[in-house]
Amino acid sequence: MDSTDWRFVKKRTADADGAVYVSADGTRYRRTGGAALRSEAAFQQMAAGLGYPVPRVLEHGETSDGTFFVDEESLGGQSLHEKALASLDSRRELPDEVVEKLAEVSARLLAAQAAHPVDGGPDVLRRWVEQAGWTDNVFTENPDLDTPRTRATLTRATDELTEVPMMWGHLDYGLPNVLPAGVIDWQHHGVAPLGYDVALALEVIPFKGGAKGYDATPQQRERYLGLLDSAARAAARPPVSPYLGAFLLVKSLFFLALMRPTDPTRVDKHQKWQFRRHLFLKGIEQYERTGNIDTALFPTLDNFTVGQGPAVRP
What is the DSSP string of 160-211? Predict the structure, then answer.
């Protein structure tokens, strides 16, 4: 790699030895890695052919030292997450212009996904729950959560989604991965119900514990989901908002899977793990009672640490 043409940006989390570089003129990004990057690049090329708003792969191959690389077009210098942080004033309210841009990109993605469904069925739905929720990891690391109640709730959510078309999804969609011109970071791609990606983009903010610097207001969340429902209807597909609870139940597993159990003497890590467990259990309780999950009722990490106490067994 010619160091005069590329500037190091950051290490890649998806590949232990991978990294991200930007070209001198800012028009291209180069990512390096191994098998995970090869799979992502192949998927990205397929998704671009389906009209998904993803970066075009310009070149791929191996560097002189045998490292796999992918060169792709830049979709912009800042993610919507970065734009939101840069736009904040004394309030924590997410800027409306960021929500509008998110809705625009999400509607484009939803339309492309709706136009290219994949074969579904009960087995495909179950595999989605296992992949998107990392259920094997969660239940191995939190065996007390693997109860008949938890399994029954997940089965209810799966059954609710039986009639929803399946499509190729991002599975980690949110403001950090959305740029004004499209969506990046497809390493978690997989088959999912239509709407799973885009419907949760604002709903996942509380899972960060209040440390991201902004919150979506109830009005912003309602408007965003309304715009998505309109986009789904325009594509002759069912609206996405009625399935928010089922989607969030699986997403709460995903966030718990990202937080490994740790030594209680590492107070910060242990608290974050307990916090994610607490949110998962609150999600189960809400979904059992109402068929939905309202993330506005979730505590922040600070409030949980001070007053909520540890999560209990389901």
Answer: HTTTSPEEEE-SS-SGGGEETTEE---TT-EEEETTHHHHTTTTTGGGGTT-
Residue with tokens 């597993």: 253
The pLDDT tens digits of the residues spanning 238-251 come to: 999 999 999 999 99
Q: Which H/E stretch holds residue 192?
A: strand 190-193
The 3-state DSSP class for residue 61 equals: strand
Q: What's the predicted TM-score (pTM) here? A: 0.91
Closest to 280 (Cα-Cα) out of 255, 258, 304: 255
Dihedral sign computed on CA atoms, order 180, 194, 231, 255? negative
Q: Classify residue 172 by its DSSP letter.
A: S
Rounded to whole angstroms, how far apart are CA atoms 310 and 249? 20
| CA distance to 77, 88, 122, 217, 219, per residue, from 84 (Å) | 13, 6, 39, 14, 17
By CB atoms closer than 10 A (0-12, 13-18, 19+), residue 264 is exposed
**Per-residue pLDDT tens digits for 18-69:** 899 999 999 999 999 988 899 999 999 999 999 999 999 999 999 888 889 9
CA end-to-end distance (rounded Å), the chain? 52
**Any idea how long the chain is?**
314
Choose among 217, 209, 215: nearest CA to 306.
209
